[in-house]
Design goal:
There is one protein chain. The protein has 313 residues and is an alpha+beta fold. Among the domains are: 86 residues; 119 residues, endopeptidase domain like (from Nostoc punctiforme) (endopeptidase fold (from Nostoc punctiforme), Alpha-Beta Complex), CATH 3.90.1720. The chain is built from six helices and eight strands, in the order ααααββααββββββ. Strands 3-8-4-5-6-7 form a six-stranded antiparallel β-sheet. A hairpin with a 2-residue loop joins strand 5 and strand 6. Helix 2 packs antiparallel against helix 4 and helix 4 crosses helix 5. The chain is rod-shaped, with a radius of gyration of 61 Å.
């Protein structure tokens, strides 16, 4: 190490080239101004006593620092604004996602509620249909029993009347009594006997459906088409029939419309090409699923005369 290393230097610190140039420029400008003023003034002009205040390097540094500070503040403010904008965009995206999720959940709940409501309505409808079917079956059974009882009573009354008529004639009743007895017998022969057995079951079932709706292709229990009703009525008596009207009218034997019995099948059109069928229920009446306007009705043969009839029983 040099023995002069710790001795402070007596040299003046070097000034930077920029500072030297600045000071030289300022000094040169001042001297030029003084020279011009001296040349233009009178020979005996008084010496200038005013001094010109020159800008100092300290004030220039302060202005530069202020500018740098202002620029830094502007940059910081811009960065803050960008950060706030990014936060707002993120908040908006999050809100949109939450709203979408909430809507999806609401739609799911609504769909579940609709499905539950539809299931409840289907169960209620099925329960009503079961109740109606049970009620119709009970009515059909009651009618069948009533028809059987009426047939039995009619047979008993006919036997008693016949017996009384025979006794009267054997006792030598007058001709007027014989004439009256003959008239009564004739009336009984022309009066159609009530349905019994399978025919009674067919008639009772058909009448129990009066008021039901007509639906093309309907086979019950609350809506029918013509052949669906006839097929179901015969099934109630334990007899299987084809499903289509022309197939039904092609079965059994053809009978005259003047010799109808309860349970006969009436048809409209040709026997092998019928387009409508119904069940004859006696007393000049029939039950059929007519159309969507009337549904299942009981009508007189005169209301819509059939083309023919067949007997299955």
């Amino acid at each position: 190490m040099s023995h002069t290393a710790h001795i402070p230097s007596h040299r003046k610190p070097r000034r930077s080239a920029s500072k030297l140039a600045l000071r030289a420029g300022v000094a040169g400008g001042v001297l030029s101004t003084i020279a011009v003023a001296g040349a233009a003034g009178p020979a005996h002009a008084e010496p200038v006593t005013e001094t010109i205040e020159m800008p100092t390097l300290g004030s220039l540094g302060t202005d530069l620092a202020s500018a740098v500070s202002a620029s830094a503040e502007a940059s910081q403010q811009e960065a803050l604004d960008q950060s706030l904008m990014a936060q707002e965009n993120a908040a908006l995206q999050k809100a949109a996602q939450e709203a979408k999720k909430a809507k999806a959940e609401a739609d799911r709940k609504a769909a579940a509620e609709r499905a539950e409501k539809a299931r409840a309505e289907a169960e209620a409808k099925a329960e009503r249909e079961r109740a109606e079917a049970a009620e119709r079956a009970a009515r059909a059974e009651a009618r069948a029993q009533l028809a059987t009882t009426s047939a039995s009573t009619s047979d008993d009354d006919g036997s008693s009347d016949s017996s009384r008529s025979t006794t009267s004639r054997s006792d030598g009743s007058d001709s007027s009594d014989s004439s009256n007895g003959g008239s009564s017998a004739s009336e009984e022969e022309t009066t159609q006997a009530p349905a019994s057995g399978s025919a009674a079951a067919i008639v009772s079932f058909a009448r129990a459906q009066v008021g039901d709706a007509y639906v093309s292709g309907g086979t019950g229990p609350n809506s029918w088409d013509c052949s669906g009703l006839v097929q179901a009525a015969y099934r109630a008596a334990g007899i299987d029939l084809p499903r289509i009207s022309y197939q039904q009218s092609s079965m059994g034997t053809s009978v005259s419309l003047s010799d109808l019995q309860p349970g006969d099948i009436l048809y409209w059109g040709s026997r092998s090409g019928s387009y409508h069928v119904a069940v004859y229920v006696g007393g000049g009446m029939y039950v059929g699923a007519q159309n969507s306007s009337t549904g299942v009705v009981e009508r007189s043969l005169d209301w819509d005369p059939p083309s023919g009839a067949v007997r299955i029983l």
